[in-house]
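Hello forum,

I keep getting stuck at the same step: I have a sequence, I want structure tokens, and every attempt I make locally crashes halfway through. Rather than fight my setup again tonight, could one of you with a working pipeline run this one for me? It's a single chain of 310 residues.
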Amino acid sequence: MSGAQRYYGLAALVLVLAALPLTFPNAYYYDIAIRVLMNAVVAIGLNLLIGYAGQISLGHAGFFGIGAYSSAILTSHFGWRPGLALLAGAAVTALIAFAVARPILRLRGHYLAMATLGFGIIISIVILNEARYTGGPDGMAVPPFELFGWQLVGERLWYWSMAPLLVLVAWGALNLIDAPAGRALQAIHGSEIAARVAGVHTSRLKTRIFVLSATITSVMGSLMAHYLGFITPDVAGFFHSIELVTMVVLGGMASVFGSIVGAAILTLLPQLLATFEGWETVAFGLILVLTMIFMPRGLVPSLRLWLLRA
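Reply #2:
Ran it on my machine without issues. Output:
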């Protein structure tokens, strides 16, 4: 995709987000749209790591959980302002991600996948066991988000806050991809040895993109916690990590707009399968398998390729 095409896509995204509320008959549709927007931001950050850098992560829900519970604990137990709690959660996540990135990102293939999976499980266990602060398996309440005395309450206000955030993150990701660092990431994905020979500091770049992806995920975890007003350890669970990866794979790896499409489909899917309780897990697995078999590039890149051939 050329630079011009990317920014045409960004303009189309802005138009869709601006027009979408005109079709919402009630607050329920706003609620679903907000969840789509939040998941899309996380998927874009994860796609930078998986799709562009080629580094698999099955533990990203752990970073989501760190952000969510940092905001919940600091605001509920210690009286912090939500904005400061969000920044503290992001800083803690960045430090943890930096600490684990060096040893983990030396691994490749299924070894890397298992290492990130183990990290996510550790975070989930810590959240479950520290019941004094986290509420354990029962979860805990989270105060509304507040910034400079302004409280973010109501689905419409949340939507018009999250929509510009998604556009900003998408714009930032597109600029990163067009920059030399983005091309270096894609070189690492193609061949890490060749990238190293070409002068790319691969370990430093992989660490930076891992930290960036984790921090984006943490921030959205904090915002999701304040939006929902209640969180449980499921936010850091293995299934949530698989859900995030499936969003990236389904929409299209190495595709910013594919991340948004994948997030939209997999956020809406549980609502469509509400009458088939428990089957959404099977549906996620089936979608992942079918996508890898018939559309290994993902929906958006595959559709674009078919259109170019037509």
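The chain has a mean pLDDT of 92. If your local run keeps crashing, start a new thread with the error log.
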